Amino acid sequence: MSNRMWGGRFAEGPDAIMEEINASIDFDQKLYKQDIAGSKAHVAMLAKQGIVSDEDATTITSGLDSILAEIEEGKFVFSRALEDIHMNIEARLAELIGPTAGRLHTARSRNDQVATDFRLWVRDSMDQLEAQLTDLLQALSEKAQKHAGDVMPGFTHLQSAQPVTFGHHLLAYVEMFARDRSRVVDARKRMNECPLGSAALAGTSFPIDRTQTAQALGFDRPTANSLDGVSDRDFVLEALADASICAMHLSRLAEEIVIWCSAQFGFIKLSDKFSTGSSIMPQKKNPDAAELIRAKTGRIYGALNALLVMMKGLPLTYSKDMQEDKEQAFDALPNLSLALAAMTGMIRDLEPNTDVLKQAAGSGYSTATDLADWCVRVLGMPFRNAHHVTGAIVKLAVDKGVELHELTLEEMQGVEPQITNDIYNVLTVENSVRSRVSYGGTSPQNVQEQAARWLKELS
Ligand code: ARG
Prior knowledge:
Number of strands: 6
Mean pLDDT: 96
Bound molecules: arginine
Number of helices: 19
Shape: elongated
Oligomer: single chain
């Protein structure tokens, strides 16, 4: 049997393999809510414009409501022969209300229908990401506030560089995730235009009101060009690009968590709720959630890449290639959402080992820059000379196998005779971080202020 919806000119039905490659119902059934909402908005507009009768519109609308209930109750039978969610619903509508169902598709095509449904789905995902990012920002800012004064080593090249505070480190991620959130908000604004009414590609001869359907579906306006309306997938590409950057940030933090909770670092304790044990090694507590967050980045980048490649060679307007857009987004965006939820839980629960952090903050000659700065400030040396003097003092400490503050004054004066006892004040990690008062620097006072600013902004 040929297809009930478009089989007029076909003598034979499709080959089984054709049906398999062509059908999208196995995954696009996720769009049932959006599809029904779109159809209801469309038929209401058709009635208002006198394109269908009010009576037909009422019949169609109540039929659509029954289908929504059937799907939500798990009673709806999805059929591959009917290809996709649009035709499954329309065919069921015909079973329920008879030939009137056929009026729903006036002045519409599956091309503008799928573009609208999918936009609505992506828009919901963006709204969810925004809310979840806000939650993560809150968790990070609270933790940062609590540990505004706890010192830890700051790294470059994963080598101890200068002491910073744990709160400062967390607030760096607040900046990143806040940019992620603003990207999501920004993309959502750009994507909030309604393609419905672009019809197949050229628009329609019926006197439709696209502004009405756009408003009914929560869009700011209709898309301005029908060819673009049916063939644009920027909205999902942008969502995936934003998701990729966010996943990259999550992955960096996850990587730090993995390193920090290793026995060799011992910087943090993860809660039992966000770690797992080993089936063979009883002593182990593994940071699986962090590892999985790190891993999920791959499939999110993959989705963006798959879609960019899928789109790049497509002439205007719609091509069936575009059906492949959905699985990528359906995989990537919910996985990002899961990763965000797991990261937020982990951050809320984790505790820094402040003693270990402090010990580590002081090792590796991390206050050498403070020593050089002291020579500049107190002795009036040019920084390059001070750098040289400090290098010589560090070398002395390395040779003796001691930390900077363990050198005697005489030893330091052997390198630079003008050094006084006051130098010891800048060699402690507490004084080092306390002195970093420049805007954006790591001083506990700054960190308190920044954490308070974020918490205020987020509340
Ligand atoms: N299932 C299709 C998709 O996801 C719907 C649009 C089909 N349009 C068409 N002209 N065959 O892209």
